[in-house]
Amino acid sequence: MRQLFAIAAALFLAGAISAHLLGNEGVADFAAVIAFFTLLAACLVPGARTLAPHR
Amino acid sequence: MPAQDESLRAPESLPARAPARGERTLIVASLGAILLIALAWAHPGTIIAQGDRSPLLDPLNEAAKCNTAWSDGSAYVGQTNACFGVALYLLIYAAFNAVFGLSYGQVILAALILGLCWLGAFRLCRTVGLTAPFACIAAWAYTLNPARPTYLVVLPSFDMMAAATPWLFNALFVAVDPARRPRARLWIAAIAAVVGAQLATTPQIILAMALGCLAWAFLPMRLAADAREYALWALKTLVIASVASLWWALPSAISYFSGDVTRVTNASQNGWIFGNASLLNEMRWTASWTWRFLDYFPWSGVSDRSAPLYLSTFTLIGGVIAGLLFASGRSLRIVRFCGALALFLLFLAKGTHPPFEVLNLWFFKIPGMFLFIEPAGLTIVAALCAALCLGIALESAPEMFRNLPLKRLLSGAAIGGLIVSNLAVITGAVFHESSGFEPAMHVRVPAYWFDIARRINRAPPGGAFVLPADPTQYAEYSWGFYGADTLARDLLHRNVLLPGATRGYVLPHAQLSIERKLASMLDAGSPLVAPALRDLGIRYVIYRNDVLLSTGFPFSSRQAQATFAEYPVERFGALDLYDLGAPPSGPLSTAFAVIGEDATPIEPGDQLELRALAERVPRVTPSKMLDGAVRLTELQAPNRQASDRLIWRSVLGPASGSIVAGQYRSQLRAAYAVDKTPNSTETNTYGQLQLIRGDDGLPIPRLVGRVARERGELYLEVVVPSARIVHCEVDIGVRPRRAADYTLTVNGRDMDRIHVVASATPIWLRIPGVRLLPGRNELVASRSSYPLASYAALLPPRRFVGGAFEPYEGQLEFKHIVAESRPAPTSVARAMRPLGFTTRLQLKNGATLLLEPAPGEPGHPSAWVIGLNLRGAKYQCAERIDDGFPVDLRETVRQCFEGIGRTLDADAVAHVEITSLWLVTGPGGEQTGVAPFATFALSSRMERPVAVRVAGAFGARRHVLPASGSAPIVIDLPSGNAHISIASTAADISNLAIGAAPQAQLDEADVSIALQFGGFYAARIADEVPRLIIIRQAYHPTWFALMFSPGPRVLPHVEVDGWRNGWYAERAGLFVAVNSLVIVQFAFGVLSAIALVWLWRRSR
After folding, report:
1. Mean pLDDT over residues B95-124, rounded?
2. B212 and B259 in one domain?
3. DSSP character for B366?
4. SS3 B125
């Protein structure tokens, strides 16, 4: 779940950045708000899985 | 916990000292790089200054002026002040200046602070368990986070906070190991006691740092094997650190409750601070309001539009995301904690910016939290947390992903992102040259400033009064500095009174009252200015002809010459120095003082003016007497005629009094200052504004936005505040380094194509017949190279544009504005309708405008059209006004005229009359729904003559005294009783009395001071007569005095003149006056030192 949220946050953030660079600030701000809270959720939800191999 | 989850080593397994050779190399290389970067910032012979950082040329003088908890470093009349805490920084600064010179001393000290910042972050990362290379990257990511340029060097307290925070976090984290707790406690207490003091003048960052540390402490507590013991240790450490900080924290805390708050502290009225704080910008650490202004950051527009530059600013938040993906076990717990803490702090830092601003407004209501209307401290802590996540993410990333070396790629991307996002810092462009609006940040102070400082510093005693003043804390100098107006305070080894230039968040009421009074006296050309200044102990008046008169205090050089004409003047470059002669008394004096018969409080400024009228005025009111044992009659000076009697004094309002005039000299003295009756209009709702039609003149289009894009494209946003389409000539300043063709596009239509030859300096591009629509218009001037190379510039292009050039690049002017006969198309969204009200205001005595925003709608800019009448000619111009900012209408008007190429001097301003103010609605036509502001207040001042009626057995007589006059006026009174009444408001301050003018200041006798240091005075009083002993420092209950004659006796403390400290003494002896906060400062300083030594011994 955490990774899902983190990936979603990354995607929304990428969307916000793209929208900003394309000049659509409204969409950029909206996507950034979703990215922000998705990322916060990723920090708060439990879960220990990782994409990196265990060492 | 499974072994494989231990992706990071526990702190106890780390070597506390002696880093490995590779690690040492990284440290030395990084610190060396910081030094090299900083050295490139210096331009020999200049000093970096802008905004709150004025050129700091004499740090030792500044340190001396802030020597104790009571000082006159920021207020002429003295105040309890936290600036003494900065003394250590100032002394180190002075030492660096002495060794490396002015330019390099400044940047090397900055490099030292940056180095400590990097080292602290590196140490923290190593303690958390990162290996040296990734700790190095994380430390760089924190040290040069994108928010750094907003405070680098120019706000040293923020730099120091950024340096101290990782060391505090590190100390809290190493304490996970019980064996290292004593040493960690010593570090925390030492940082609180020493570094905390340097930050005392900016309480918001102390609060941010303290709250950040409290929140951070939960992480090591969760990781510690003995969480309960750790919590107890942290609690005890907090108490000990607080005790160690008492020496600066207690006087500082009291200082914030000891005067008038000079800043707006309401969150909803500080919405402009959060204007750029969208969550998107928060996540790239560029949420500062200054980022939007190309004047401060000329490269920010490019940075926001160029994909690589823009992307690079997301390195930190990318680290949080990557950390959540790659970290595991203990490192994941750290990433989750740090990521959540960083995001939480960023949310707080966004303030009243949407979304969910209601939550932030609620947060601001918690006691003390209003301080976070200045949110930079929060973003610093957030950057540290995010940098830690970045380091962990890179450390935890898999080596390979399929065939890609993922870890190396990510590390390379992070390093690349850090470098790209910090190009301005690395290249030194962060300290920009003239941007056309802002002068260069490398400031060269003219030699004449040093000459006048040397002249005054060697001259006989006396304070300095500096003109012209600025209603804000900033001044603009013609030689290239715009920022905090503290140059005179810095260079002159004298107490300096600079009206208007508030420094700090709180000022004594007396200082503000006196400043206001002096401002109005100067504005009115009162002859009482000089005696009032001398009464304040001021001997020297400096008029700065190099300050641009751009303020609500247009006191011109000519006016200064008229006011101080009778005093000798010297010229130092652009500075005039007037010598008013020795003040009547020094800082310590004795006086026989009249005690008022009523308890009417009097404003310190009014009292100052009354005394300057040479009138005998009450200096002490019974309500201010602390000790009833004071015998009032004994304070009457000997040989005083009983007939000298004050019958009336007033600050506004009608008044009357009865006198018995027959048996004495029958003369009535009426002494009063200029009439300054305030007149204000307040409109509470938008609907109350009247819809009106404007005058015949056409509004001038106004430039509201300007961005220089790549490939020579200049984007301009222009508002036409007219209801009709206009045609005009548009002149644009461009700088074609090569021969070029310029095309102007207006609202998507090509208007004209102009060929220009190469020019090293900007030139005008003149495009006639441009058609502009009502409302917003987009103008794009795009450049294309001309194919013939022979037109290329022969001279190298000038390095910097703007400032000295005419025009400067991007300057825009409109000429020959003609309205189109057809009305504006109402179907387009661009249509705007002028709404508003008509008023008629003489700007002679100043006028201000304040739009208070509705809660939750802060920072809403409103466009206004201002109709003006200057010497019979009508003008109109548009101005954008931000809610919550009191706008000085004179300044606004000055800008309006500047926009059409006219310069208004003080005399011209006096002839300006505002005939109409229109509110222009936003796109979409008529305003509907919510008003853009809650309150509209307009204030002005007007003058009236003084009407006096004298009635008695002889009948009644009326006298009309002229409105403007400050010399005493004498009216012969018939014998017998008389009743005198003032029919209407006479003046800000008036005084009616009978008898001869008693020469009040002759009552005072100077006392030579045996010893004086900050808030400590000692002197020997010789005369055995009852009198007041007065110190020219603002009255504060923390002062007390003893008289040793020979045994000590506590003297009754009274407030003299509404602001001075006075003590009633009956005997001769040794007089000692001390501010108790100075004792607190030294006593707790000793206690702090003892506590640190004790902690050090325990930690060994």
Report:
1. 95
2. yes
3. S
4. helix
CB B628 within 8 Å of CB B947: no
Mean pLDDT of chain B: 76
Which has the minimum average pLDDT: B30-39, B147-156, B661-670?
Answer: B661-670
Residue B656 has pLDDT above 90, yes or no: no
Cis peptide before B355 (omega within 30 of 0): yes
**Residue at a domain's end among B891, B914, B941:** B941
Closest CA to B394 of B137, B608, B167: B137
Residue B812 sits in the same domain as residue B841:
no
The terminus-to-terminus CA distance of chain A in angstroms comes to 22
B763-772 and B724-734 as β-strands: parallel, antiparallel, unpaired?
Answer: antiparallel
Q: Kindly state the helix (H) or strand (E) to which residue B842 belongs, with its residue range.
A: strand B834-842
Both tokens assigned to B690: 């009247």
| Lateral strand order in the sheet of B775-785 | B702-708, B714-720, B775-785, B740-746, B749-756
Average pLDDT of span B581-606: 73
CA distance linking residue B120 with residue B162, whole number of Å:
9
B237 in the same domain as B346 = yes
Pick from B760, B784, B816: which residue ends a domain?
B816
Q: Are residues B738 and B874 in the same domain?
A: no
- Tell me: do B186 and B327 sit in the same domain: yes
Structure tokens of B961? 């005294």
Residues of chain A in contact with residue B397, where contact means CB-CB under 8 angstroms, are 52
Which residue range forms the structural domain that includes residue A40? 2-44
Q: What is the ipTM of this complex?
A: 0.94
Q: Do B305 and A21 touch (CB under 8 A)?
A: yes
| Structural domain total, chain A | 1
Same structural domain, B744 and B890: no
**CB count, 10 Å around CB of B829?**
11
A15 in any annotated domain: yes
Number of domains in chain B: 5
Give the residue from B325, B406, B709, B717 with the most A CB atoms within 10 Å of its CB, the best one to mutate. B325
Q: Which of residues 291-320 of B touch A (CB under 8 A)?
A: 304-305, 307, 310-311, 314, 317-318, 320
Task: Print the domain residue range for B629.
Answer: 598-640+999-1100
pLDDT at B635: 41
**For residues B679-695, average pLDDT:** 35
| Domain membership flag for residue B37 | no
Q: Does A21 touch chain B (CB under 8 A)?
A: yes
* Sign of CA pseudo-dihedral B144, B148, B149, B152: negative
Total number of residues shown for chain B? 1100
Please say whether the beta carbons of B893 and B843 come within 8 A. Answer: yes
